Amino acid sequence: MKATLILSNGAVFRGDAIGAMGERVCEMVFNTSMTGYQEILTDPSYAGQGVVMSYPLMGNYGVNHEDNESRRPWAEALVVRRLSPVGSNFRCEGSLGDYLRQHDIVGIQGVDTRALTKLLRSQGTMNGMITCAEHFHVQEVMDKLAQYRVSGTVERVTRREVQVYAPVGDLDHRVAMMDYGVKQNMIECLRKRGCEVTVFPAHTPAAEILGGGFDGVINVQGDEPFIMPSQIEAVMRCFDDPQTDIATLVKPFTVEDGLEALENPNSPKVVVDSSWRAIYFSRSVIPYLRGVDRSEWLARHTYYKHIGMYAFRADALRRVTSLPPSSLETAESLEQLRWLQNGFRIGVGVSEVETIGIDTPEDLARAERFLAARG
Fold first, then answer.
1. Distance between terminal CA atoms of the chain?
2. Residue 94 and residue 100: Cα distance in Å, rounded?
3. CA–CA separation, 33 vs 35, rounded Å?
4. 361, 264 in Cβ contact below 8 A?
5. Cystine design at 127: which of 3, 8, 316, 354 (Cβ 3.0–4.6 Å)?
6. What is the pTM (predicted TM-score) of this model?
7. What are the residue boundaries of the structural domains of the chain, listed by start?
């Protein structure tokens, strides 16, 4: 059966239907991994989204019950260049096509996924619809795409009750982890490092967590699908400094990125000082001080892409939860700025894993004043 993918910018891709038949509207994103399609489909961060797999062949090693990152798949749709009809691997328990049908995931193959990836990378995430209908009214499709919003994902993906995972080997730390879309791999990484991990539903009151006697609390945003063991280690190393209250992750800009990447609103940024402390966060362009030459400003500060994983000391989390909103935080829509304004020290761990965030420019005047006050 034929299928069609229509994007909100008017682009149309035709191919063959795979998975569940019918129509599905979702937010279209891409993933450049060569393998790991089952982990991607079951990653809670893809809830409400359709995933374009850039690599041209998917399904060649099938699926199994061990590679799930959560209790069920969350992706709404899958777009591939070619779907292997059978899986060949000693762990294979079924085909990817059957898996898609079993979990009501619509899909399309025969699409130039590399061209589609370039489009999404250059123009940003956009809504799309996959349909098996031979005839459809373009304006009706555009109206559906304009109205669609990904919402309520945390309530959908979070677990319903507290779960405790024992450490692998000796117990070194007791860690609380908030489930805003946590992957099983994150839990396993901590278990292998001697942590007993208690995972809490997203709606758990802060008092319950803070009263649990944990050595630390980890809060991972649900829109970061590439958390790796090295990233968790980088965050934990921040606490080697006893003055660090909160830790987060960043990725270096490369020489090839240039000023255009620094000013790209698709790359959330962190200003870092020489002590590997965050001194500013930005969802928009870099807030240069007015009247200061841009090259001079860049020479005085180091900027990193913000990845968005957080870990708190328990006493810091207790104080953070009671802070009132600030005007600077409102301007940039970032709670981290509230933490900085109230004197919390945010350590920075470095990772080479790329992530992408879609943000919009905001008023930079407050940011300039804040940075000027910090010297």
1. 63
2. 11
3. 5
4. no
5. 8
6. 0.63
7. 2-153, 223-373
